[in-house]
Structure formats: C-alpha cells, structure tokens
Design a protein that fits this description.
This protein has 227 residues and is of the alpha/beta class. It has 7 helices and 10 strands. Helix 5 links the parallel strand 5 and strand 6. Helix 4 runs parallel beside helix 5.
Length: 227
Amino acid sequence: MSTRTVLLFGATRGVGRLMAERLRERGRPVVALARVSERAEGLAQLGVRVIHGDVTDADSVTAAFRAAGESAVVVSTVSGALEKSRFVDEVGNMLVTDAARGWNPFRVVLVTAVGCGETRPYRSPQAVEAFGQIVDAKTRAENYLRGSGLPYLLIRPGGLLDGPPSGNAELTRAPDAHGNVRRADVAARLEEVIDRWDCDGQAFSVIDPTQPSAARRRQRQEQRASQ
C-alpha cells in the first residue's frame, strides 16, 4: 500500500468523507481542506490534518497544498452551487488545478459524473434537464485539468446512492455507460486506482450493474424496440 499523502477536497461529506475514513483506517496520511464545522472536527478525530478554509478561495487551496507538500495524491470530490449560476465543481476544481502546478503532485484526481466529457452525447433528455448545467461545469473543470500538463485521473460516478458497499461497482471506459452506484463503492474503487501508474491520463465511469436505474431501463427498452 502506498504511503503517499492524500490531499482531499470535499472530505466532509459523501464520497470524500468515505474516502477519508478508508485511508485513515489503513494509516495513510491525509490532509483535507474544510470550513470550520462539526464535520471538520469529525475528520480531525479520524486523524486527518484539517486545514480550515474554502475551496473557492485561492489562498485556502494553496495553504492545503503547503500542508500536504510535494508529490501528494490530490483528490477532489467537491460539488455545489454558487451565486450567478456558477458551481463549486468548476470554480473550486480550477483553483485546485492552478495551485497544483506549484506543488508537483503525483496525480490530481477529479471525481465528476457520468455525462461529462466524451460521455456527454449519451445523456438522456431527462438528465440534461435535471443536471445539465452542473455536469457541464464539471466538464469544464475536467478540460481545464486535462490542459494543465499535470498528471490526472477522472472518475465519473453514475447516480449516487447511500448504503453499504455492494462490492459490484465497475470501472468502465464505455462512453455510453449509465446507472447508479453507491457512494461507498465509489470510495472503494477510488482508493484502488489513485496510485496506479496505468491509470494516468485516464477517465473512467463508475456504475453498479446490480443497482436499478431509470437510465438502464430506458436502454433496455430502446434495445428491445430496435430488435
């Protein structure tokens, strides 16, 4: 198991929190940027070194990189709406990319969503209506990282569900992959690949074929209709 420090953005909830728990269970050093809150205190109790600040503030992001030092694995799961139709997914992740240039990270990993990048043409009209703006913001963050010259990895979960890990989540490069996946399974797959050399510059969707989803039902209906 690698002993590289992992720098987490978005560690107070969801996949980021589950990732912090998994890494600390194995004794791996973790630094996280988080606003002052009970959730941040919970991270500290896990043994995470918490740097107080906001991912939309460049000085805060730089302080987190300074704490992690060079050669860290950087993982961002941040997401959320800001004012004027802007999203943390874009603004925050671009600041992470900017700061990373000065710290020689082992890799920058963005956790975005199915529907980003080359998977965009396969989004359903329902998905576009519900999540189109935020997924487009995630895509812009992906493209910004891709153009930075930094080593990177993109992880695109399907629809996120709560609950214990099923152990059935799959990583796929198929652009038309759709489906749901539990957050715990995303964290598990994420931990498996963040250090793998053969994942550099790759983009994977993460779905669980055992989880029911509206997208998969539509795919089956379309396949039957075309036969």
